[in-house]
Write a structure and sequence with these properties.
Layout (H helix, E strand, L loop, with lengths): L4 E9 L24 E4 L4 E3 L23 E9 L7 E5 L6 E5 L17 E3 L13 E4 L3 E7 H4 L9 H17 L3 E7 L6 H22 L6 E6 L12 H7 L1 E7 L1
Helix pairs in contact: 2-3
Length: 258
């Protein structure tokens, strides 16, 4: 748009026979809105979060209520302006697989709002074949793949709630699981030796369950069985006497057949 804003417009169609209430399906905080929908700039490996107003509310519209059977309601949500030469972005939502290659068009329209929080554009964390940098990577054998995800990337300290960055990482994991066709996925939570088992084991279990819940929503293959376990500090892969080692030990691993 003319005032350096990017607007995403979404049509939500109710194909059921009953009225449909979107609720918090597309936004964790803003009822009947699309505030949790994000945009991916694949070329620059960045994720755009929707603008928030100084009041904390999403810079977006809200539906009036239920969507009647057979009808379509429109939602819009605002984002920071992307690079001038970027032509397409990927749309990610809490309810659907990623929607690829949505074209960016220019508009002479403006929407004024002087009470916006700072734009949030996050660098994507890519899963590589090494554990350097952010301690997120993979190990492979002839039979299986184990993707090791840093708890420091997935969660805030002492929390089992996934961060904004986590969904992008888990979408990559889900794609690999779908491509593999594996019938069983093992998810194991691990902690460093800070604290004791009464804290570490439940927290590592809760974190593994959070990853399971998110993957189950993203994976498109049917009939997958999840095996979830929290191990606390019982299975370190690095020296707990150093901060770097403790960081590597705080992890969730996702293992499946190749």
């Amino acid at each position: 748009m003319e005032n350096d804003l990017l607007r995403l417009r979404i049509g939500v169609t109710n194909k059921s026979e009953d009225n449909f209430n979107l609720g918090f399906g597309l936004s964790e905080t803003d009822h009947l809105s699309a505030g949790s929908v994000s945009l991916i700039d694949e070329r620059n490996q960045q994720r755009y979060l929707s603008y928030r107003q100084s009041s904390g509310q999403c810079f977006c519209n809200q539906l009036d209520g239920n969507i009647p059977s057979g009808e379509t309601d429109l939602l819009w949500v605002m984002y920071p302006k992307p690079p001038e030469d970027l032509e397409r972005m990927t749309v990610t939502t809490p309810l659907t697989p990623p929607i690829f290659d949505i074209p960016i068009t220019s508009s002479s329209e403006t929407i004024e709002n002087s009470n916006l929080d700072s734009p949030q554009i996050l660098d994507l964390t890519m899963i590589s074949d090494s554990l350097d940098g952010d301690q997120t990577g993979r190990t492979e054998s002839n039979e299986e793949v184990s993707i090791i995800l840093s708890s420091d990337v997935l969660f805030d300290t002492n929390s089992a709630e996934l961060t904004n960055e986590a969904r992008d990482i888990l979408e990559q994991v889900a794609q690999e699981i779908d491509d593999s066709g594996a019938p069983t996925v093992s998810i194991d939570g691990h902690a460093d030796n800070t604290g004791n088992d009464s804290i570490n084991i439940p927290l590592s279990q809760e974190r593994a369950e959070s990853v399971e819940k998110s993957l189950a929503e993203i994976i498109t293959s049917e009939g997958i069985t999840f095996e979830v376990e929290g191990h606390g500090s019982a299975d370190p892969i690095a020296d707990n006497e150093t901060e770097e080692g403790r960081e590597r030990n705080r992890r969730v691993s996702v293992t499946f057949e190749k």
